[in-house]
Design brief:
Largest sheet: 6 strands, mixed
Protein name: DNA primase
Shape: flat
Distance between the termini: 58 Å
Number of helices: 26
Structural class: alpha+beta
Helix content: 40-55%
Radius of gyration: 31 Å
Cofactor: Zn(2+)
Strand content: 5-15%
Domain Toprim: 259-346
Oligomer: single chain
EC number: 2.7.7.101
InterPro entries: DNA_primase_core_N_sf (IPR037068), DNA_primase_DnaB-bd (IPR019475), DNA_primase_DnaG (IPR006295), DNA_primase_Znf_CHC2 (IPR036977), DnaG_bac (IPR030846), DNAG_N (IPR013264), DnaG_primase (IPR050219), TOPRIM_DnaG_bac (IPR034151)
């Protein structure tokens, strides 16, 4: 069994990895100050971004929930990896060969790493089988839906042979154990042992947002297949259907760029949309669209304003209407505007593209309708609006929909829309909407206490930037320390060492200062994040905020100059304090004594040092 990864390799992999690239695969990041980026926190639900990433320092911090760390801690939290697995994952990403303390090569036996590897190998096997003679039925299935070999290759579509041990045998030959294949959901357990889970089906690989295969979706092809029409990978350590979105790996870049996502119902619908130019289409995997999916999408979209769009496509049948109503209940979690797009004659995107071409798919999305209008229409569709009783009944079921609108400008507009559709007096509709709002007990959501925020986050025993005393001395210490943490690698080493070597007056800031003072090389990548990890509690969170906060400057050069000036001012403050003490002490000793002479010499040195520092400004 291999030993620990050599520390030099751990540091080298981290130095070669841009933390913004890794986090940017999960969270839409945008510039937020000098050397800083910001997005919605992936660790708690929030309406406005408080998650800061500082690529130069290789560090992230959330001002909402307090989570912070380096690229390894991010992967460990997001992907539930061990430390070694996180290092190995990044090393594999950049093609770096790790070395271990016992001299062994990089092992490939860790649990999650093996699951990813098994799924990747299975995806390759299924893709290869699509060109086999047996797979004619799968190729015909795809062709009948307008997907040629190029489309199949783009989405990685494959075929699972009808036998009981196709992928089992192929992956055994690659060195995978049966228990690993079972843990990956690729085989099932029977009375006679394990056998292939997917047999005689067209197979779509399901990837996470980083592009790693984590599972599969498979559609029945043969008439004698008594299994479900669609069969997915079961829940595994890497595949959780509640937060998996098919196609997100292909769509994430355009979703982030356009702040728009199109939610469709199946794998072929995703393929049809992408091939038609709707490259922001995604789908759930064998489960209803829910809160976890919304959290994933909001982070990828950068959903912190009402400018974005989330467009749902639903079949017009009863199941589709039910799905729409369920989605509407969760859609309030988006800041973006939500819409519904339906194809003509109830055609889904795949059939619409097949029958009417790519332009029809694009037109379907373009002619979307606000989701609230769609839901109102579904609610009142079963009432006879020609009768008084029907209109009153329709109002009673539709009023709660309007009452749930929290936007103070949208709600009165939809009161008027509902009144027109029902042919009723606007004031009567407004009163019923108000009554429905009171009875529901809804109240506007705020972010005063973000979900997942640690208890006692504002406790005075755990100081934060917001709770620091508003004095000139504390402000100078705060900003100087922030500058050194963020730009110390570009500052004059001597002035930084002198400033950081001096005690600070605020205990929390002094605890952070001590950790920084313990760093030997400020030019080493990741030194600041390591220093924060060495800050003693309860002040580590304050250190994380100092490293992640926006330093007040227009650009890097200004920031370096400002941080250097603040460091000089700290040294000047210490010199002035020492001079003040010496001037008091000289009054208590004889002028011609050894003590008196030493004090006068030191006073002259202080004055000369102050003059030199003033000349350097």
């Amino acid at each position: 069994m291999a030993g620990r990864i050599r520390q030099a390799d751990v540091e080298e992999v981290k130095a070669r990895t841009d933390i913004a690239d890794i986090i940017g695969e999960r969270v839409a990041l945008r510039p937020a100050g000098v050397g800083s980026m910001k997005g919605l926190c992936p660790f708690h639900d929030e309406r406005s971004p408080s998650f800061n990433v500082r690529p130069q320092a290789g560090f992230y911090h959330c001002f909402g929930c307090g989570e912070s760390g380096d690229v390894y801690s991010f992967l460990r939290r997001m992907d539930h990896l061990s430390f070694s697995e996180a290092v190995e994952k990044l090393a594999g990403r950049i093609g770096y060969a790790l070395h271990y303390e016992d001299g062994g090569a990089a092992p490939d036996t860790t649990g999650r790493t093996r699951l990813y590897a098994a799924n990747a190998a299975a995806a390759e096997y299924f893709r290869g089988q699509l060109s086999s003679g047996e797979a004619e039925i799968a190729r015909r299935f795809l062709g009948e839906r307008g997907f040629d070999a190029g489309a199949a290759a783009h989405f990685g579509v494959g075929y699972a042979p009808r036998g009981w041990s196709g992928v089992l045998t192929a992956l055994r030959e690659k060195g995978f154990r049966d228990d690993e294949l079972s843990a990956a959901g690729l085989v099932s357990q029977g009375q006679r042992g394990v056998y292939d889970r997917f047999r005689g089906r067209v197979v779509w690989p399901i990837r996470d947002v980083t592009g790693q295969v984590i599972g599969f979706g498979a559609r029945r092809l043969h008439e004698d297949d008594n299994g479900p029409k669609y069969l997915n990978t079961p829940e595994t350590a890497v595949y959780r259907k509640a937060n998996v979105l098919y196609g997100l790996d292909l769509a994430k870049r355009d979703i982030s760029r356009e702040h728009r996502v199109v939610v469709v119902e199946g794998y072929t619908d995703v393929m049809a949309c992408h091939l038609a130019g709707i490259t922001t289409a995604i789908a759930t995997c064998g489960t209803a669209f829910g809160a976890d999916h919304i959290s994933v999408l909001r982070r990828v979209m950068g959903d912190d304003s009402a400018a974005g769009e989330v467009i749902f496509t639903f079949d017009p049948d009863a199941a589709g209407q039910k799905a729409a109503l369920r989605a509407f209940a969760d859609a309030k979690r988006f800041n973006a505007q939500t819409y519904v797009a339906t194809g003509p004659e109830g055609l889904d995107p795949c059939d619409l593209r097949l029958q009417r071409g790519d332009g029809a798919v694009r037109a379907m999305v373009t002619t979307k309708a606000p989701m609230v209008e769609f839901v109102i229409g579904q609610r009142i569709s079963c009432f006879d609006l020609a009768s008084v009783e029907g209109r009153v009944g329709a109002l009673r079921v539709a009023a709660p929909v309007v009452a749930e609108l929290r936007d103070p400008l949208l709600q009165p507009e939809y009161v008027r829309v509902l009144a027109r559709r029902l042919g009723m007096d606007t004031e009567d509709v407004r009163r019923e909407v108000t009554r429905a709002g009171r009875s529901s007990g809804d109240s506007p959501r705020t972010d005063a206490a973000p979900t997942g925020a640690p208890e006692g986050a504002a406790d005075s025993l755990r100081p934060t930037l917001a709770t620091l005393p508003r004095t000139r001395d504390v402000a100078m210490e705060r900003d100087a320390l922030m500058g050194v943490l963020q730009f110390g690698h570009r500052m004059d080493g001597d002035i930084v060492a002198r400033a950081i070597g001096l005690p600070f007056r605020h205990p929390g800031l002094d605890a952070v200062r001590q950790a920084v003072a313990g760093v030997d090389d400020l030019s080493r990548p990741g030194w600041a994040a390591d220093a924060i990890g060495n800050v003693r509690e309860p002040f580590r969170g304050l250190g994380a905020e100092l490293l992640a906060a926006n330093f007040p400057a227009q650009n890097d050069d200004e920031a370096v100059a400002s941080a250097t000036d603040l460091s000089r001012r700290l040294v000047m403050r210490a010199l002035e304090a020492e001079k003040h003490e010496l001037l008091g002490a000289i009054q208590r000793v004889a002028p011609d004594s050894d003590g008196g002479r030493s004090i006068r010499i030191r006073l002259r040195e202080i004055d000369a040092e102050r003059e030199r520092m003033l000349a350097e400004e």
